[in-house]
Design a protein that fits this description.
Layout lengths: L17 H16 L12 H20 L1 H5 L8 H26 L5 H10 L15 H19 L8 H29 L3 H20 L11 H6 L7 H19 L9 E3 L4 E3 L5 H11 L3 H14 L1 H22 L1
Antiparallel strand pairs: 1-2
Bound molecules: fe (ii) ion (2 copies).
């Protein structure tokens, strides 16, 4: 469902004298602490609003750009069944983007503004979608690892303090769970297949393992948003905690597939009961985020082309809305 952009914040969010403001902030934090949901027209600190606009819009952009690496394989899926599953999955990602743009709009930013930021290259989206998908196994690896990492990140967001975001995430997570299983099943088929198929699966794991770990964002020591977001209950776990959960969950799955995680330093730590990984190459992560990943230019060019080609649809929808309004007005007169 489309939600109209609210270009002004709620009427209760007027500039308040300092003492009133402190009282409002205390009340707001008490509601968050009591696990009450904050709704669009409730008073909220401006920094909370801005943090959510940034996070939700980046999340929405990631879903929309995330359609591209797999969309690339729709025409080449190895069977009709695989093709229909992949179409459904890519369509789900588009739907996730739309729920999230709607959730961001409730905070006072318009969809058009968010789109313009994406198309201008000034908005961030998940670095993972700037990697290419050269083989069918990459589609499997994306479902298994990228959607798997997304679930790990997103399940705690179902309990986020901001109502519209948390409700959108409940639906999104159900669909991500299907995505993860379809990806794992592709990998399983390849891993149980011919030697060439096994090698294809291993090569895809080699390509996607490290970028998947980077999806959780910078290490806690370098992350600027952790502490405040945790206090506001937007974030429930730190980047490193979520990354660790993902590793602990995924390594046994790779073992089951008979594939090798491309990390010579990966080991089971008996004392902590966790897998320990080697060092992540944060230089690569920063480069991809800055726009120097293998497919950054290609992804943005595809989004810009889609926006231009969709111009007539937006114009037709506006013309239809104007006609409807005129007709309703005439009928009421
Ligand atoms: Fe998604
Ligand atoms: Fe997904």
């Amino acid at each position: 469902m489309y939600t109209q952009g609210l270009d002004s914040p709620g009427t209760v969010d007027l500039p308040a004298p300092a003492a009133d403001r402190q009282a409002l902030e205390r009340r707001f934090q008490a509601r968050v602490d009591a696990e009450e949901k904050i709704e669009p027209k409730d008073w909220m600190p401006d920094a909370y609003r801005q943090t959510l606009i940034r996070q939700i819009s980046q999340h929405a952009h990631s879903e929309i750009v995330g359609m591209l690496p797999e969309g690339n394989w729709i025409t080449r899926a190895p069977s009709l069944l695989r093709k229909s599953i992949l179409i459904a999955k890519v369509q789900d990602e588009g739907g996730h983007g739309l729920y999230l743009y709607s959730a961001a709009e409730t905070l006072g930013v318009s969809r058009d503004e968010m789109f313009q930021q994406l198309l201008a290259g000034t908005a961030k989206y998940s670095s993972i979608f700037n990697y290419p998908t050269p083989t069918w196994a990459d589609v499997g690896a994306i479902g298994w690892l990228v959607d798997g990492a997304a679930i790990m990140n997103q399940i705690p967001l179902c309990r986020c303090s901001y109502g519209p975001y948390s409700r959108a995430m409940i639906r999104v997570c159900k669909e991500e769970s299907f995505h993860q299983r379809q990806g794992f099943e592709i990998m399983l088929r390849l891993a149980r297949g011919t030697t060439a198929q096994q090698q294809m699966a291993q090569a895809a794991l080699n390509r996607w393992w490290w970028p998947s770990l980077m999806m959780f964002g910078p290490s806690d020591t370098d992350s600027t948003h952790n502490e405040q977001s945790t206090r506001w209950k937007i974030k429930r776990f730190t980047n490193d905690e979520l990354r660790q959960k993902f590793v602990d969950f995924t390594v046994p799955q790779a073992d089951f597939l008979g594939l090798k995680i491309p990390d010579p330093k990966l080991r089971w730590d008996e004392a902590s009961q966790h897998y320990r990984c080697g060092e992540i190459d944060w230089t690569e992560f920063k480069n991809v985020l800055k726009g120097h990943g293998p497919c950054n230019q290609e992804r943005l060019a595809a989004r810009r082309r889609a926006y231009e080609e969709g111009q007539w649809v937006r114009e037709a929808a506006l013309a239809h809305a104007a006609k409807q309004k005129l007709r309703t007005g005439r009928a009421a007169a």
